[in-house]
Amino acid sequence: MTSAETAAGTAPGTVAANRRRKRSAFRSMPFSVCLGACWMALMFAAAIAAPWLAPYGYAEQQPLLRLKPPALFGYETPFWLGSDHLGRDVLSRVIHAIRLSIVIAVAGTLIGACVGTAVGMLAARLRGWWEEALMMLVDVQASLPFMIFALTIVAFFGNNFWLLVIIVGLAGWERYARLVRGLVVEAETTGYAAALRAVGADSWRIYRHHILRNITGALLVQMTLNFPETIMIETGLSFLGLGVQPPLTSLGLLISESRNYIAIAWWIALAPSIVAAFTTLSVCVVGDWLRDVSDVRLR
Amino acid sequence: MTFINRRQALQGLALTGAAAALPFPRALAQGQDPRPELRIAVQGLAPTLEPVNAISNVGNRVTNALFDTLIRRDFFSNDSGSGTELVPAIAKSWKREDERTVVVSIADNVRFHNGDAVSAADVAYSLSAERLWGDKPLVPRGPLFSAAFESVEAIDGRTVRFRTKAPDFSLEKRLASWIAWVVPEKLYRALGPEQFGLKPVGTGPYKLVEFHPGDRVVLEAFDDYYLGKPTARRITFQVVPEVATRAAGLISGEYDIACALTPDNLVQLEGQPDVEARSSVIENVHLLVYQGDARWLSDKRIRQALNLAIDRKLIVDALWAGKAVIPNGFQIPAYGADFDPGRPPFRYDPEKARALVKEAGYDGEPISYRTLNDYYVNSVAAAQMMQEMWKAIGLNVRLDILENWGQVLAPGMQIRNWSNGFQFPDASIPLTSDWGPNGSPQQTHGWKASAEYNALAAKVRSLAPGEERHKLFQQLADLWEEEAPGAVLYRPVEIYGVRKTIGWKPVSFEFMDLRPYNLRFA
Questions:
Q1: What is the end-to-end Cα distance of chain A in Å, rounded?
Q2: Does B387 reach chain A within 8 Å, measured CB to CB?
Q3: What DSSP string runs through A99-163?
Q4: Could you tell me if residue A11 is inside a domain?
Q5: pLDDT classification of A190: cutoffs 50, 70, 90
Q6: Rg, C-alpha atoms of chain B
Q7: Do B318 and A59 touch (CB under 8 A)?
Q8: Mutating which of A261, A266, A268 best tests the B interface, going by the most B Cβ atoms within 10 A?
Q9: Would you place residue B286 in the very low, low, confident or very high pLDDT band (cuts 50, 70, 90)?
Q10: Is residue A292 part of a domain?
């Protein structure tokens, strides 16, 4: 964001300059990022307003009106995006699926961020033997293919909704842990931490009130980068039949249910696939842009 | 730089020619057998080909090509492929000596794939106490399908006598059923059921070439087959779990027959120039089993309410394009004299169901319904439809879609889905067998059947066909409905996608008959 500096006209690094730089960055947001942000806003709106937006209930069946093509494409049916193999409205199911997938992804991301941040801070605070042990855990997690890990957990404990949220939450905690440990260790060496220590603040106070606040930006970026992955994990598990269970619905489950009908009722797969692809793409694009904006080294 | 002179070039050419000629004899050998290969896409395979251990809706179609039953049920003795006439097979004749005894003469012209002639000893061993019905039989599922034998003995080299403890007038039919696939005694003893299940040797029209459990079975024509040379050179049963992939593979020409299609695939096959659907309503019912000692399910009123809430017609119209058959009571027309065409159908009465749920004091606690993901065609869709029907009468049923039968049967089960294949067309099956004192509902699913039910079942098993048996069987079916240990949903239709040039007809059973009389290539 070189334009930020020229626009600011003041010495970089000051609070005022930073604010100005960010504001200007938003103003000069690329079109693709704009589009991604709008799509995300739309998805969150759909998730919140699902019960009011959906024309039918997600489990409401009209079995004799099954596999009807979408009215949107000019067919005379009561369903905008067609109906599935049990005569359920695809549009309503997609809207509710967005809601559930997003809830799981948000909850999962928050869990991952909290666990990872806690572990990272602990490692940075305790150093020595503890740090080695915690970072070894991080390495172990990073070296495991996560899907296999998730399948093993589900195989052992059976599947239920909250377990699914926790599994999704565990995806990527190691990345937060590494990031936070690095940032905290670095922050410890800066002047403000030393100054606080000099006036008698204890470590936890410094971590909670000062360092954490300073690294929030980096954490947020990491969260946006991690978010699409959590959506994909939920989708993948549900596709394999190990995630969300019917009649609840999620994007992965919808895609999974549609695959037996793809040759005769393509519309069942269409909407959930597009939504899953666009949502992950949008979050990726916006996350990338946020990283670029906030990364000092890229300026 | 290297130069090649004329001699070297000629030598090279000659060598190339010789190399090309080397594999030729093999190609020639294959060329000499003009019979085509048949590739069949199946939804699954049994983990073993031991014929009794493999009994399942995925195992029977393969074992039926490898083995012959002692007596053969001629499905083509009527036009619809559901005939019940018994004809000679390994047994060239049989004679009923009294109400407990049948004596069978073994044909001289039947051979096992290893070339040995079938002897009375092989037949007696195949149906022996040691293998099937003793205290600790080699095949643990044997007793479930066996008659209550007192003895099975080879009287001489070509005659076997079967004797039951109580009168049993369906014994001949049983000897034409999946319990009576004949195995070679010596080899079976030497290998044991497990190894034999991997390298089976039977008398059937096709012999084993390769068996990769979970992937494919390859069979090859057994030219000494007693009903004449098989018409295909090779048969491959290839596992293709997804129904859409099976249908697509058939259309693209990768497979000649695709099994276990759904009525939705019919639309897809219509208008295809080379393939068509052939179907048959099979002697099987899709069922629910209730865990009789589980919370809520131990209350008969809840079980009855579950049954009264099922709108079978809606399920069949929606998911089976109206092609599955809803039986009137737990009976099929192939029972013959014991079938009552006037028996009232299963009741659908949501009002009554709602009242029963209320009366039972049900508090909304979720009831678990366990199923595998479409092991039975349409099972998950049907479960989701029933879930809504049960919701409408106030029952909160949770669907648990699991990975394997071990998880389905683990403690905590309340409702599961199941199917009953009719081992042979007789009123004693399945109400006195699968649902009798030795069946899993009474043994493991906590159904405390009344003494009256079990006494009636024993009587139906031992009575000769006639008015008395008809009456008692109908009472037995009434009692089953009243005690409601499960629910009958419908008789499924087995839909095959078949290349049009193949002359092959499905039968009213869950296996495929690939014998020379039912497999032709245009």
A1: 5
A2: yes
A3: HHHHHHHHHHHHHHHHHHHHHHHHHHHH-HHHHHHHHHHHHHHHHS-HHHHHHHHHHHH---HHH
A4: no
A5: confident
A6: 26
A7: no
A8: A261
A9: very high
A10: yes
How far off is chain B from A18, nearest CA to CA, in Å? 53
A86, A241, A261 member nearest B401 (Cβ): A241
Q: For chain A, what is the domain count? A: 1
pTM of the model: 0.82
Torsion over CA: B501, B503, B508, B509 (sign): negative
Q: Give the integer Cα–Cα distance in Å for A131 and A135.
A: 6
pLDDT in tens, B126-136: 999 999 999 99
CATH (domain of A115)? 1.10.3720.10
Mutation target for A interface from B252, B403, B404, B407: give the one with most A CBs within 10 A. B403
Contact A63 B243 (CB under 8 A): no
Asked if residues B398 and B369 have their Cβ atoms less than 8 Å apart, the reply is yes
**pLDDT for B25:** 45
Q: Is residue A235 part of a domain?
A: yes
Residues B48-72 have pLDDT tens digits of 999 999 998 899 999 999 999 999 9
Domain that holds residue A100: 30-298
Q: Return the structure tokens found at A19.
A: 């604010």
* Residue A147 distance to chain B (closest CA, Å): 16
C-alpha distance from B113 to closest chain A C-alpha (Å): 40
Residue of B nearest to A63 (CA): B318
Q: Do A246 and B315 touch (CB under 8 A)?
A: no
Query: Poorest-confidence range of A281-295, B236-250, B301-315?
Result: A281-295
For chain B, how many residues are written?
522
ipTM, 2 dp: 0.73
Q: Which two tokens stand for residue B120?
A: 């009375």
Query: Which tokens is A98 given?
Result: 């967005």
Burial A157-176, CB ≥16 within 10 A → b, else e: eebeeebbbbbbbbbbbbbb
Work out the number of other CB atoms within 10 angstroms of the CB of residue B3: 5
Dihedral of the CA atoms B83, B86, B87, B92 (nearest 10)?
170
> pLDDT tens for residues B162-182?
999 999 999 999 999 999 999
- A98: in domain: yes
Digit-coded pLDDT (tens) for B420-477: 999 999 999 999 999 999 889 999 999 999 999 999 999 999 999 899 999 999 999 9
Residues 6 or more apart from A121 whose CB is under 8 A from it?
Answer: A180, A181, A184, A207, A212
Chain A contact for B311 (CB, 8 A cutoff): no
